[in-house]
Amino acid sequence: MHYEGSCHCGRIAFAFESAEPITGALSCNCSICRRRGSLLWFGPRSAFELKSEAADLESYRFNSGHIDHHHCRVCGVAPFSEAPDPRSGEQTVAVNLRCVDGVDLDALEITRYDGASR
Q1: Which of 5, 55, 56, 103 is the most exposed place for a label (fewest CB within 10 A)?
Q2: What CATH code is carried by the domain that includes residue 18?
């Protein structure tokens, strides 16, 4: 399945592929996800295409500094993050499904993740 999305102003545009339709999302209660209200889909970085200039991204790292939390330097919306998977080392992307066109957020099965305790 092909998906496309962007930040609020459209400066950060992206597309990604998922082997199956997206039916679920992860809701993390860590300090940043809770404040952003992120609903996350995880996949391989190789299935993700940034359609904008990387220079338009701002990045924020906190805690262990392991994850690049990207946001738009104009509107401030955070459409995705990226980091190596701690188990496999594979580059992964966490897409905020609130920034993806055509995803019915009310139909998603939400999995809760206790990131606050990590």
Answers
A1: 55
A2: 2.170.150.70
